Amino acid sequence: MKKIGIITGASSGMGAEFARQLAKKMICDQLWIIARRSDRLEELKAQIEKDDDKISIIPIALDLTGSKGAEAFGTYLKENFPSDAELKILINNAGFGTYGPFEET
Length: 105
What we know:
Elements: E1 2-8, H1 13-25, E2 30-35, H2 38-51, E3 56-61, H3 66-80, E4 85-92
Parallel strand pairs: 1-2, 1-4, 2-3
């Protein structure tokens, strides 16, 4: 059975580092990296595959903001998640922005 890892917010910072580290651990056959910026996802994919060609990196440019983002991700999963696969790990690292005084947010 194919093992898939999914990392949201993977285009930079902690998300990108989670992707690099998870790829090294080799607990997944495929690593889906999700973020809004496709160019950065492609760069990360190239970096990881240069260091380790045994894991398949799937970059997914998707904005997960709000209910529309969640719906888009759900649709993507329904259409693309293989029936013979299992979700091995999910790292939900996608950020969000809230502005204002802390006690009001």
